[in-house]
From TrEMBL:
<protein>
    <submittedName>
        <fullName>Aldehyde dehydrogenase family protein</fullName>
    </submittedName>
</protein>
<keyword id="KW-0614">Plasmid</keyword>
<comment type="similarity">
    <text>Belongs to the aldehyde dehydrogenase family.</text>
</comment>
<dbReference type="InterPro" id="IPR016161">
    <property type="entry name" value="Ald_DH/histidinol_DH"/>
</dbReference>
<dbReference type="InterPro" id="IPR016163">
    <property type="entry name" value="Ald_DH_C"/>
</dbReference>
<dbReference type="InterPro" id="IPR029510">
    <property type="entry name" value="Ald_DH_CS_GLU"/>
</dbReference>
<dbReference type="InterPro" id="IPR015590">
    <property type="entry name" value="Aldehyde_DH_dom"/>
</dbReference>
<keyword id="KW-0560">Oxidoreductase</keyword>
<dbReference type="Pfam" id="PF00171">
    <property type="entry name" value="Aldedh"/>
</dbReference>
<feature type="domain" description="Aldehyde dehydrogenase">
    <location>
        <begin position="14"/>
        <end position="472"/>
    </location>
</feature>
<dbReference type="InterPro" id="IPR016162">
    <property type="entry name" value="Ald_DH_N"/>
</dbReference>
<feature type="active site">
    <location>
        <position position="247"/>
    </location>
</feature>
Amino acid sequence: MQYNMSQFYIDGSWIDPRGSSSVNVINPATEQSLGRLALGSEADVDAAVAAAKAALPGFAATSREGRIALLESVLQVYTARVDDFAKAISLEMGAPITMSREMQAQAGIDHLEAIIADLKALDFEETLPNGDTLVRMPVGVCGLITPWNWPINQIVLKVGPALAAGCTMVLKPSELTPLSAILYAEVLHEAGVPAGVFNLVHGEGPVVGAALSRHPDVSMMSFTGSTRGGVAVTRDAAETVKKVALELGGKSPNLVFADCDLETAIAEGVEACFINTGQSCDAATRMLVERSVYGRAVELAQAKADEMSVGNPAEPGDHMGPLSSAQQYARVQEMIGAGIAEGAQLISGGPGKPEGFETGYYARPTIFADVNSAMRIAQEEIFGPVLVMIPFGSEDEAIEIANDTPYGLSAYVQTGDSARAARVARALQSGMVNVNGAFLGAGSPFGGVKMSGIGREGGREGILEFLETKVIAAP
């Protein structure tokens, strides 16, 4: 299918950009161009924000029932086109088509269903115990910046709650993955989202992202991406004292205790690191293993990694696809080299591309053993198929190692002791904990602590991020 990469969606119409800048959108599996993407300027941001500002009073005044009906229309249109999204995501960021359909594109359905359910249950007004009235109001015009690794997942987790709250918005998706954003604009248009409520401007972070963050008529910035990018958004937003929500990086620990089902835990732990070619902020990239079973765990991890295959993302199957870009491939190669230089034991994979995949940004599934927390590969987010294994002696030491990171997004615990699972989960400095292979479902709040961000996305908590609180005194 054809993608309109030469225009922006502003005030309900596809319009030409103010400038002439553009960039090639590259298929990471073939290294071939999918076409030229128009890049926006500050003038394009001004036009989009003006449209959102003009639409705000009318949309903010809509009823909850009206917004529920609108979101249900969006869900219906999206569901009918879900295969289009799977194909687009596979093309633009290299997700294997089976995974792209079952996880990447499916997330757009799962999250929106949860948002609708939570909107139906949310109280926009309530009486406090002291008799005062609490009123929740839309925060206003919102700037939304989304990443390339789970493109539609993050778009829905921002656009859906913003619509549910009665906000208007300007979306700047990653310039690496614009196709799914273009399709989503088409879905919103067909679903009947009023003109000006949703606007789409493509562009680079230092240009379009900065212009959004600094804009005096934008009341809130919601950003998902690197910690460095989140810091830049926060600095720019500070000039106009706007609300900022950030979902940033991670270096998630996976604590494997000796009393768990070791074979299952290691196999699932390797998969939890390598899914999406390791390009997930909550990937289980640090596997901490109790020393009494550490040797066996290393053997199991090596065997599991050696079983994993790399393949063409256009072909169905459970193989791993390429990394998203040449830049990301270079980053992963740099970190693999750093692990070798620091003396970690390379037990699977390593530098370079898998045999037979000289074209495309493919990396080898890589595991390092005998890693310690002083190494770069244990501290820095690699964002690729690289797992590090670290032994521990006691429960307290495991928690100490797990928390020895500037990040605090997600964590994983594997144990046969339910009391230990609860105790350790509460001691970990993270916004989320997955236990014994169970993963958080759609509708649960997603987000972290420390340098992993501020605020939450998904479900009720995600809607609340886009609302302001007013209290009216009892007469």
